[in-house]
Amino acid sequence: MNPAEVIIIGGGLAGCEAAWQLLRRGHAVRMYEMRPQNFSPAHKTANLAELVCSNSLKSNSPDNAHGLLKEEMRRLHSLIINSADKTAVPAGSALAVDRALFAREIEEKLKSYKNFFLERAEVKTIPQNSPTIIATGPLTSDAMAREITTLLDSSYLYFYDAISPIVEADSINMNKVYRASRYGKGAPDYLNCPLSEEEYKYFRKELLGGRKVAAKSFEDAKYFEGCLPVEVLAARGENTLAFGPMKPVGLINPRTGAIPYAVVQLRRENSAGTLLNLVGFQTKLTWPEQRRIFRLIPGLENARFARYGSIHRNTFIHSPSLLTSSLQLKNNENIFFAGQITGVEGYTESAAIGLLAGLNAAYIIEGKKLNLPPTQTAIGALLHYITSPESAHGFQPMNINWGLLDTLMVKKLKKRDKNILYANRALQFLNYWIKNQYWD
User: Fold this and answer.
1) pTM recorded for the entire structure
2) Domains plus CATH for the chain?
3) What is d(CA 97, CA 271) in angstroms, rounded to the nearest whole number?
């Protein structure tokens, strides 16, 4: 290994984003990706930046914290967000992508640099004397997990995360479903399966009684609240689903002129619209039970499943006690961590931390110091959350949200108006931060 190279372990969103930030500043990158030699429980392809849980990067709206983070990343020359914009599929106000085109775009962009070297091999020993970014994600291999645990001299924290099923579009009964986006936002890009009160209650009963995949003896499931299995949500109360992923608000059925009791929304998985994701239906039901129970949903009686839902372990470190604000290990400045393994949750958030890890590594190699992004920005607030001692007690993975940003003291405003003020302030602070860095 050439000591002048930055080593990146993991070819997911965070690793690819970190590599991009280094490459565009002229640095050499050697990336190690274990696939296809070794697959995680959720990955299906050998593609870099494969999306596994959903094809959606969530809201693109400027009055949403997820939308703000994306806009900040665009201004920071993000490979992930620019590639998502280029390969987007219709999804209302959300940014969803064609998975295959998205992964291909990212890999081609990285390989266009002569100083990018991709090694298809599993790393089992972490280099100690070269700049190294660990971006192995929430599905870190067992061997790498043991190596990191030894390096940190502490045990891992973990929770469990489930992925949603995908159905083939031409197997849906279009006479029972209708197109609409919730609250009328954007184009009517979602297919909606309406349920009556009777149908909803029967579906919930079958969901609760459905056979689940048995937990292994060593598993102690700690679900992330933002991605709970649908059957876990159903068990929390009779109407939890009707007020959650199956809420019908703003989804008038054009056939009846009324809002149904509940709906199941289907979102495009690819540009051609031949595959559709059951939104919010991550599950740990067995495959036969998924086929039986989800076919109770009106319109899905004869649904063909291109992918069933499954459950997998998400692993993360206790970043507030282990990492500096530059994402370096406190006890080894050559080692950086990036992505979901640091305790952020979500595709965009993972890529954002990869972006910062790459920039920090580049600046350090150049003998410079990257000032911290302001906590008035989404990316700065996210970094502060995972590295500040204030977060150490009860540290858990977190999506970006307005509550992480510095409080804005304003008179009482409507929620959307207040969010827009937060977003405008964030972008002003971000522009000032960029201007005062030697960015390019």
Assistant:
1) 0.80
2) 6-156+317-435 (3.50.50.60), 162-313 (2.40.30.260)
3) 8
